[in-house]
Amino acid sequence: MRDLARGMFVFGYDNYMAHAFPEDELNPIHCRGRGPDRGDPSNLNINDVLGNYSLTLVDALDTLAIMGNSSEFQKAVKLVINTVSFDKDSTVQVFEATIRVLGSLLSAHRIITDSKQPFGDMTIKDYDNELLHMARDLAVRLLPAFENTRTGIPYPRVNLKTGVPPDSNNETCTAGAGSLLVEFGILSRLLGDSTFEWVARRAVKALWNLRSNDTGLLGNVVNIQTGHWVGKQSGLGAGLDSFYEYLLKSYILFGEKEDLEMFNAVYKSIQNYLRRGREACNEGEGDPPLYVNVNMFSGQLMNTWIDSLQAFFPGLQVLIGDVEDAICLHAFYYAIWKRYGALPERYNWQLQAPDVLFYPLRPELVESTYLLYQATKNPFYLHVGMDILQSLEKYTKVKCGYATLHHVIDKSKEDRMESFFLSETCKYLYLVCVL
């Protein structure tokens, strides 16, 4: 399985380099590159992510290292240093630029400078902290998003050359504004400059202080000027997912007790208001546990669907030590995968059918599988990893890479391979059977 996962990554990466670099993404069906949609600035599905900075190459750096490919890692780092610039007239989402680009630069920098060299010799002769300097340059260009906001919650988008656009939206999702602390915190600590961590922490605390006094839950969309909740849905999926993830991972990284206290409090609220089904995972009457979408103020059910991003949550439960519940919830998502050979973007648990049918090669279920295998060493999770890998090979592999599934039932495809397929999905498939 390890060699198959590595081969999957290499096929996608080599095709990106051959057909798409220096553009941001690979269109794997037509074997060409894709950058920002300059003709339609409102095409946020593309423009929020693609900043004309060779996104897929940058995002894949640490996966090259983790897979032990020192020569290609060193070559890629030099290519990034010599060709990538953030002095661009590109309006990008602060969240996406942070997790995909800033985080990748910092990870690669730490891999190069780590005295232990856990993945083999990834040192680079004459390396002079260039990736760290690039990370700082990008973060400085993102800082205007935190200015002129009455709450301290950042604007969702920023132009890398000119700052916050004059017509910028005052509404942002909780995950987007509250999932910057890991990267900004690491950058601050590496530079000895608290500015970046301070603005990210201020945003987290501002969101935290807006939670419901009755339920302890947060909504999914907030006005950054008024602090008014525009979206009152509370769940584990889009708009909220990584907010929870970053609270816990920030504590694991930095040891700040306040982060753990916030996570424990919101985890308790999640259990009280979002969890449905029997109390125990594997015994008792009633349905297996399920986490639903509710009104943040009343805790009342708002709809009967879940989205594929929620598949990250079993992995987070492993990290907090709630392994039994993680096993049960993971089994729910894997059962959906088994049914379709992919996870539909949105699934109606009442109708037991997809509501939104596409699958963009997301990594969340694979990450949870990896963490559950680490926690249990149950070979079942090796089987799950292999099953996912084989499904991806069967249903998404095309001439020049791996393509988004447009429809999980008829398996029709879209001509897009998002950067997280190489940087996360392939990485976790590889790690399942390595560590």
Characteristic key phrases:
single chain; 435 residues; mainly alpha; 3 domains; three-stranded antiparallel sheet; 18 strands
Describe the structure.
The active site is at residues 96, 241, 345, 364. It comes from Neophocaena asiaeorientalis asiaeorientalis. This protein is mainly alpha-helical. The chain has three domains: 1-20 and 304-434, no CATH class; 35-39 and 49-149, no CATH class; 170-296, no CATH class. It has helices at 2-19, 44-47, 55-59, 61-66, 70-83, 94-113, 130-142, 174-178, 181-191, 195-208, 241-254, 257-273, 313-320, 323-340, 364-376, 380-395, 419-432; strands at 25-27, 32-34, 91-93, 157-159, 171-173, 221-223, 229-231, 233-234, 275-276, 290-291, 294-295, 305-307, 346-348, 353-356, 397-398, 401-402, 404-405, 413-414. It has a three-stranded antiparallel sheet. Strands 12-13-14 form a three-stranded antiparallel sheet, with no helix packed on it. The chain has a two-stranded antiparallel ribbon with strand order 1-2. Strand 1 (25-27) and strand 2 form a beta hairpin. 51% of the residues are buried.
